[in-house]
Specification:
Blueprint lengths: L3 H10 E3 L6 E6 L4 E6 L9 H16 L8 E6 L4 E3 L4 H9 L3 H19 L7 E6 L2 E3 L1 H7 L3 E5 L3 E3 L13 H8 L2 H10 L2 E3 H7 L4 E3 L4 H14 L1 H14 L4 H15 L4 H21 L1
Parallel strand pairs: 3-4, 4-6, 5-7, 6-8, 7-9, 8-11
Antiparallel strand pairs: 1-2, 2-3, 9-10
Length: 289
């Protein structure tokens, strides 16, 4: 376990890579671990800029193996109390109002590209880790689930509220949950719209490790230390899991087409609910700032 002084040393040994508008990245050479921290604005959701930044960063990792020699990759957030609130509902509302099918498809494809890169370990022998310190809703929860290991601080909350505005999470939720749980429980979770505590999800096996509030980064390094003791066994078992029940890019894109069809059928009352949720999230963001 690492104390505050050791964690500070880790930070000093890391270096910052190219700058992104809504993403902060660095590589900790000592622990062979890359970090990316999401910081979208004005709402802590998957803005088009954040998606561009994530896909740019992931492309860098794939193309620069010699400069990014890593064994671990961590997705986290710089927004206090929020991992990510999911899809850009304000954008969805505008696209639905103008019947912009291509817009929905383009946005969803950018989401799938980022999600699949993480599911696919960035085409390298990398263990992917999500660190949730706050709320992870909709696409935010999908992103958290796309990693091999999900570490959450106590008090964090996660769920799929899309059913509240007559939609479903179409960028990987069912594919991920049906493999981590089973199809029936995946359906039940998605259709309930319930937001779960990190402790509840740990009991279900969806959260792998719990951390006390403010202790998440230390627990990430604790996990890395644990895996490093038997990395050959850990990574071999991961390969077996991926071989037995792979999530393919085609599967994700086929589900996306169903999501786009559903989005095009949204009605006025659904868009009004989206509008109310956007206002609530903007208020939440202002309070966090």
């Amino acid at each position: 376990m690492m104390n505050a002084e050791a964690l500070a040393t880790v930070t000093s040994l890391a270096f910052t890579l190219r700058e992104y508008a809504e993403l902060t990245t660095h590589i900790d050479r000592t622990h062979e671990c890359a970090w990316c921290y999401m910081n979208p604005a004005p709402r802590a959701c998957f803005t088009t800029q954040l998606l561009d930044d994530l896909n740019g960063w992931f492309a860098y990792l794939r193309a620069n193996a010699s400069h990014a020699d890593i064994k671990y990759h961590v997705i986290a957030s710089r927004v206090p109390g929020v991992f990510n609130l999911g899809g850009d509902l304000n954008l969805f509302r505008r696209m639905a109002q103008r019947n912009d099918r291509e817009g929905f498809l383009s946005y969803g494809t950018a989401c799938i590209d980022a999600l699949y890169a993480n599911i696919n370990h960035h085409e390298r022998d990398v263990t992917t880790i999500s660190l949730v310190q706050g709320e992870a809703l909709g696409g935010g929860f999908e992103a958290a689930l796309s990693s091999d290991i999900l570490i959450a601080e106590r008090g964090s909350r996660m769920g799929f509220p899309e059913v509240l505005f007559n939609l479903f999470p179409g960028m990987g939720a069912y594919s991920l949950l049906s493999r981590k749980l089973d199809p029936k429980r995946a359906e039940r979770m998605i259709l309930s719209g319930k937001v779960y505590s990190a402790e509840e999800l740990y009991g279900m096996g969806l959260v792998d490790m719990l951390a006390d509030a403010g202790d998440g980064e230390r627990v990430v390094y604790e996990y890395i230390k644990r895996e490093n003791r038997a990395r050959n066994g850990f990574r071999s078992l991961r390969r077996v899991r991926d071989l037995r029940d792979p999530i393919t890019y085609k599967e994700l894109m086929d589900v996306l087409q169903i999501w786009v069809d559903a989005a095009m059928r949204l009605e006025h009352r659904d868009l009004r609910m989206m509008e109310r949720l956007v206002a609530r999230q903007l208020q939440q963001g202002a309070q966090a700032a």
